[in-house]
Amino acid sequence: MRAREKKSRKRRNQKWFLYILRCSDRSLYTGVTTDLARRLKMHAEGKAARYTRTRRPLEMVYQETLRTRTEALVRECVVKALPKAKKLALIESFG
After folding, report:
1. What does the alpha-carbon distance between residue 36 and residue 52 come to, in Å, rounded to a whole number?
2. Which of 3, 11, 33, 73 is the most buried (most CB within 10 A)?
3. What's the total number of domains in the chain?
4. Which CATH number belongs to the domain containing residue 82 in this structure?
């Protein structure tokens, strides 16, 4: 199997995560990643999104696992478009 085929197969099997962080000012930040632990560490260190850099500490309050990048990006757009009350209801359902 060639390297390109291996990389393509790995990409197809890769999980994507949608996550919501609660910032120190109680605002919510929504993002997607393939490596949730690495991305949360980057946010905590102030090396990720500019929005979260000045709003630390952060708390992860919601996550979903999705199968493809496309699914993750579409879901991110849907969640970002929700009114805050609906985002809070989504977070509450997460437990």
Report:
1. 16
2. 33
3. 1
4. 3.40.1440.10
